[in-house]
Amino acid sequence: MKYFFLFLTICLFSLQVMGEVEEYILQPGDVISVNVVEHPEFSGRHKIRPDGRINYPVIGEVDVATLTCAQLVKIMQGKLSSYVNNPVVSVSIEAYYANKIYVIGAVSRGGEYQIYEPIDLMKVIAMCGGLKNSKVKGIKIIRGDGTIIAVNTAELWGTAKYDTKKYILYPGDTMFVPDSFEVPWALLSVILSVINVSLQIVLLMTRLQ
Q: I want to staple 80 with a disulfide (CB 3.0 to 4.6 A). Which of 13, 87, 92, 147 is the partner?
């Protein structure tokens, strides 16, 4: 039984880590809305400045960039606890600074694409005209902060129902599809034919000597 609980704990921890990796990281230029229940004087919209901060009522300067919304909620609850009893805080993204994602590698139409909300990987593949080679085994999602998410394409083309929320691209992210090595059979056939002819010539000249 103890091994079962240990296994369950590991699974829950893994799911938590995966969730944190997938959550959007706030960046300068984003517009966020901070709402404090029953306290409109502490609620409002804020644009993150180039230095990564916002100027918040009463509290003053708050470092926001590089945080997730969930992390910012905890920080704001701590800062507001001196002014509000048991503050209930929510943070949402009103506008993204760079509403673009980038697609590079072995796709039909690479480049930058405008998006208006986080987008599922399958939609990105459709948006860029599909993969040049559907047998490619892996795709990489490169987050704006440099984090790399490896995607096994077997999950995309598998028979099981695909979870559209598992692989999401946010503004500033890049989808990279590596080139798959393909044996150039036509060229290889020509080379072998030339080698065969050369050997025959060598053998013929050897016999004539």
A: 87
The rounded distance, in Å, linking the Cα atoms of 26 and 17 is 18
pTM score: 0.51
Question: Which CATH number fits the domain that encloses residue 83?
Answer: 3.30.1950.10
DSSP conformation class of 108? S
The residue segments making up the domain with residue 54 are 20-95
The pLDDT tens digits for 129-169 are 999 887 888 999 999 888 899 998 888 887 566 777 789 99
pLDDT confidence bin for 13, thresholds 50/70/90: very low
CA distance 162 to 154: 10
Distance separating alpha carbons of residues 125 and 129, to the nearest angstrom: 7
Distance CA 57, CA 121 (A): 39
Q: Dump strand ranges (E) for 80-208.
A: 89-95, 100-105, 111-114, 119-120, 138-142, 148-152, 168-169, 174-177
CA distance 17 to 145: 16
